[in-house]
C-alpha cells in the first residue's frame, strides 16, 4: 500500500515539473514579443545561428528565410545560404544598429530592398543581380563600401544617376560583370574603383570626370587598346596612387598618366612593344613598376630619370636585347645599388649573352664606346670593330605627320646638303653602313630610316641619336631586297638648358628649322646556304609547313580508313551473329556443341546429320546418336529430344503422331518453315522418306 502511494506521488511531482517548464517557456516567449514591439529588451539569438555580442553568424545554414535577429546585432553573416529576395523580411528595415551585412553566394536576382538604412558595408558578390535601381540605393544614404563582384550587371542595366543617393560611397567593386564601358554618374566621393574582367573597350574623355578623390583604379582583363583611350583620360585623376591595366591590348602605355601621387603602376601582360621616353616623367613617388609579360626589347635612355623613389622593377617575360642600347640601364642599376630590386632582366639576345642577367655583363659593357646610352652593340673582341649599332625605338605618336624629304643622289647612296655629305653602302642582305662627313661640328646627329613602299605618316620612322664625334653607323636587321630612305640631320643648339623637357623642346625646334640630308639604298638578296638546293632560308621554312600538312592529312586519312574498316567489320560480325540465333535462341549454340562450324543447310533439311539436339535444364547440349542404338532415359527425367531433319521428296502433307520408342516419348510436330517433314520407322531409327512426320 505504501509503495503504491509513493508511485502515485512521484507521478504527480513529474506532472507538476512539466507544467512549470511549459509555463516558463510561455513567459519567455511573451517577454520576447514585448521586447520586439517596444524595443526595450534584446531579442534572443536564433537557434540556427551563433551570436557573439554584436556579431551574428548565420552563414552556411541553408537558410531560405532570415530568422528574427537580436536588436543589438551590428554585423550579419548571411553568406552561402539559399536566400532569395523574398527571404529578407521587412522587419530588417527597422533595425538601426546593423552596420555590415554579408549576403554573397546566395540566390539573389535583384538588388535587395529590405535593408537597414544604417548600413555602411554591403557584400552582394557571387549572386545573379542584373540591375542597380536608383530608388533602392537611395535608401542607403550611409553606405560606404559596396561589393557587386561576380553578378550579371551590364552598363545599360545601371539606372541613370543610380549612385546619386549614396554620397558617402568610397569603394565600389564591379569586377567580373558584363560592363562594356565605364558606368556614368559615379559618386565624387569614390576612392577605389574595380572594374576588372569586364568587356570595357572604350574610355571616353568624360569617363572619370569629377573623381578627384579616386586613389585606386583597377581595369585588368578588359579590351582596352591605345586607340580607344582618350588622351586626357587619366590626367584628370590627379590623386591616383595605383593604376592597374593588366591583361589588355595595349602596345604602349597610355599617354598623360597621372604622375604626382602615383605609387604603383601595373602594365604586365599587354604586349607592349615600345616605352616612350617621357612615360614616367614626374613620377618621383613611384615605388613599384611592373612591365612583365610584354614584347619589350629595350628601354630608351632617360625613361627612369625621375623615378628616384622606385623600389621594385619587374621585367619578366620580355625578349630583352642586351646590347649597348642598355648601357645606360646597366649604369643605372649599379648607381642605385640595393635601393632598388630589379627582377626578370634576363638577356634574350645577342646569342653570346642569352640567359645572362644584364647586371652581370660589366665586362662586355666596357667594350661599348661613348657615354651610357650610346649607339654601339656588344660584339666580340676583334682587331677591326664594325660600325656601331645603337638603340632602336619606334616613334609613332610624337610626329605622326612627319614626311621625310625625297632622297638625293642615286641608288648607290650619296647625298650632300649644306656641306654635309652622306654615304650609304650595303654590306649584306640585311645591313647597311652609313657614313657621313660634316665640316661643321655638331653635338649630335639624328639618323632616321624608312622602308619605302609605306607612308611615313601611317607607318613608323625608326630613328636614333648619334653622338657628334661619330661619322659612321651600321643599320642591321633590315628587310632583304628592299628600298630604304636614310636621312641624317645635325642637331645644333645655341644655348644649353638644365631641364630634360626644355632640352627636348630646344632640339625639336632645331629639327624643324633644318632640312635633313637623305639618300636611297637597296639591300641585297638573302644569302643562300652552302650545299643547299638553291632555296633560301625563308623558302625552306615556308616549305616545311605544306610538308607537315601533307603528312598530317595522310595520317588522318589512314586513321579514318582504319576506323571505317573496323566499324564495317564489327557491323558485319554483329549481323552474322544475330542471324545465327533462331526463335528459340539456340541456333548459335548448336554449332558450338557440335564442335564444328554451323551449316545452314542442316537446318533446312538438305544435308544429313548424325547428331541430335538435347534440350535439358539449365541449358542445351548436343549429344551424338549412333545408328541402331536406342536412347535410354536418364533417371526418370522428362527429357525432350529434337531429332535431326531429313529432306522429303513430297513432304507437303501434315501428320501428327506420338510414338514411344523404348520408353522414350518423342514429341513430333508440324514444321511449316521449310515445308519438309521428318520421320523415323520402326525401332532402328531408319529414315523413312515415304512416311513423314513432323
TrEMBL record:
Name listed for the protein in its UniProt record: Fibronectin leucine rich transmembrane protein 1
Keyword Cell membrane: no
Sorted UniProt keywords: Disulfide bond, Leucine-rich repeat, Membrane, Repeat, Signal, Transmembrane, Transmembrane helix
Regions of compositional bias (Low complexity) in chain numbering: 495-505
InterPro entries: Cys-rich_flank_reg_C, FN3_dom, FN3_sf, Ig-like_fold, Leu-rich_rpt, Leu-rich_rpt_typical-subtyp, LRR_dom_sf, SLRP
Name of the gene this protein is made from: LOC110504640
GO cellular component, one term: extracellular space
Pfam families linked: LRR_8
Superkingdom: Eukaryota
Signal peptide, first to last residue: 1-32
Gene3D superfamilies associated with the record: Immunoglobulins, Ribonuclease Inhibitor
Regions that span the bilayer: 550-570
PROSITE patterns assigned to the protein according to its UniProt record, in alphabetical order: FN3, LRR
Region (Disordered): 494-516
CDD domains per record: FN3
Ranges where the Fibronectin type-III domain occurs: 418-515
Amino acid at each position: 500500500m505504501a509503495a503504491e502511494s509513493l508511485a502515485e506521488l512521484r507521478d504527480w511531482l513529474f506532472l507538476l515539473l512539466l507544467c512549470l517548464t511549459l509555463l516558463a517557456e510561455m513567459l519567455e516567449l511573451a517577454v520576447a514579443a514585448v521586447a520586439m514591439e517596444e524595443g526595450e529588451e534584446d531579442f534572443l539569438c536564433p537557434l540556427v545561428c551563433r551570436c557573439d555580442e554584436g556579431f551574428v553568424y548565420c552563414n552556411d545554414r541553408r537558410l531560405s528565410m532570415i530568422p528574427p535577429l537580436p536588436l543589438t546585432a551590428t554585423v550579419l553573416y548571411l553568406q552561402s545560404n539559399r536566400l532569395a529576395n523574398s527571404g529578407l523580411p521587412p522587419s530588417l528595415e527597422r533595425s538601426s544598429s546593423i552596420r555590415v551585412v554579408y549576403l554573397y553566394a546566395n540566390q539573389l536576382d535583384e538588388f535587395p530592398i529590405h535593408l537597414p538604412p544604417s548600413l555602411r558595408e554591403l557584400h552582394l558578390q557571387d549572386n545573379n543581380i542584373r540591375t542597380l535601381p536608383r530608388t533602392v540605393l537611395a535608401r542607403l544614404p550611409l553606405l560606404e563600401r559596396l561589393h557587386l563582384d561576380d553578378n550579371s550587371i551590364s552598363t545599360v542595366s545601371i539606372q541613370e544617376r543610380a549612385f546619386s543617393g549614396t554620397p558617402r560611397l568610397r569603394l565600389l567593386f564591379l569586377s567580373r560583370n558584363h560592363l562594356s564601358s565605364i558606368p556614368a554618374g559615379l559618386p565624387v566621393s569614390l576612392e577605389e574603383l574595380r572594374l576588372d574582367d569586364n568587356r570595357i573597350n572604350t574610355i571616353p574623355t568624360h569617363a572619370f570626370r569629377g573623381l578627384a578623390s579616386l586613389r585606386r583604379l583597377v581595369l585588368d582583363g578588359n579590351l582596352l587598346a591605345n586607340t580607344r583611350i582618350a588622351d586626357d583620360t587619366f590626367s584628370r585623376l590627379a590623386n591616383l596612387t595605383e593604376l592597374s591595366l593588366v591583361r589588355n591590348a595595349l602596345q604602349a602605355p597610355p599617354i598623360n598618366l597621372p604622375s604626382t601621387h602615383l605609387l604603383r603602376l601595373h602594365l604586365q601582360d599587354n604586349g607592349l612593344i615600345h616605352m616612350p621616353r617621357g612615360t614616367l616623367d614626374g613620377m618621383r613617388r613611384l615605388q613599384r613598376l611592373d612591365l612583365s609579360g610584354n614584347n619589350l626589347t629595350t628601354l630608351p635612355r632617360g625613361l627612369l630619370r625621375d623615378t628616384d623613389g622606385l623600389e621594385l622593377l619587374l621585367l619578366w617575360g620580355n625578349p630583352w636585347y642586351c646590347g649597348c642600347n642598355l648601357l645606360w640601364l646597366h649604369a643605372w642599376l649599379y648607381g642605385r645599388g640595393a635601393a632598388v630590386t630589379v627582377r626578370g632582366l634576363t638577356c634574350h639576345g645577342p646569342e653570346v649573352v642569352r640567359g645572362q642577367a644584364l647586371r652581370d655583363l660589366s665586362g662586355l659593357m666596357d667594350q661599348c664606346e661613348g657615354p651610357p646610352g650610346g649607339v654601339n652593340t656588344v660584339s666580340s673582341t676583334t682587331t677591326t670593330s664594325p660600325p656601331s649599332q645603337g638603340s632602336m625605338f619606334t616613334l609613332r605618336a610624337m610626329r605622326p605627320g612627319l614626311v621625310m624629304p625625297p632622297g638625293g643622289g642615286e641608288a648607290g647612296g650619296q647625298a650632300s646638303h649644306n656641306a654635309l655629305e652622306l654615304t650609304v653602302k650595303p654590306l649584306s642582305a640585311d645591313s647597311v653602313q652609313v657614313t657621313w662627313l660634316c665640316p661643321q661640328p655638331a653635338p649630335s646627329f639624328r639618323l632616321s630610316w624608312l622602308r619605302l613602299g609605306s607612308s611615313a605618316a601611317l607607318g613608323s620612322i625608326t630613328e636614333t641619336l648619334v653622338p657628334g664625334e661619330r661619322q659612321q653607323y651600321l643599320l642591321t636587321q633590315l628587310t632583304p631586297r628592299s628600298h630604304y630612305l636614310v636621312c641624317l640631320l645635325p642637331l645644333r643648339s645655341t644655348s644649353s638648358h638644365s631641364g630634360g623637357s626644355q632640352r627636348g623642346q630646344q632640339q625639336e625646334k632645331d629639327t624643324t628649322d633644318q632640312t635633313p640630308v637623305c639618300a636611297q639604298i637597296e639591300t641585297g638578296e638573302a644569302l643562300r646556304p652552302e650545299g643547299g638546293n638553291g632555296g633560301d632560308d625563308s623558302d625552306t621554312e615556308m616549305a616545311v609547313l605544306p610538308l607537315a600538312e601533307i603528312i598530317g592529312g595522310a595520317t588522318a586519312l589512314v586513321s579514318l580508313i582504319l576506323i571505317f574498316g573496323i566499324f564495317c567489320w564489327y557491323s558485319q560480325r554483329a549481323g552474322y551473329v544475330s542471324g545465327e540465333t533462331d526463335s528459340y535462341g539456340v541456333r548459335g549454340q548448336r554449332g558450338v556443341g557440335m564442335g564444328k562450324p554451323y551449316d545452314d543447310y542442316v537446318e533446312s533439311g538438305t544435308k544429313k546429320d548424325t547428331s541430335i539436339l538435347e534440350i535439358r535444364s539449365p541449358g542445351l547440349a548436343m549429344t551424338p546418336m549412333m545408328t541402331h542404338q536406342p536412347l535410354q532415359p536418364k533417371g526418370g527425367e522428362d527429357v525432350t529430344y529434337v531429332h535431326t531433319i531429313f529432306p522429303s521428296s513430297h513432304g507437303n502433307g501434315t501428320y501428327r503422331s506420338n510414338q514411344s520408342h523404348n520408353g522414350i516419348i518423342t514429341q513430333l510436330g508440324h514444321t511449316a518453315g521449310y515445308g519438309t517433314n521428318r520421320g523415323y520407322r520402326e525401332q532402328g531409327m531408319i529414315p523413312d522418306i515415304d512416311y513423314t512426320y513432323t
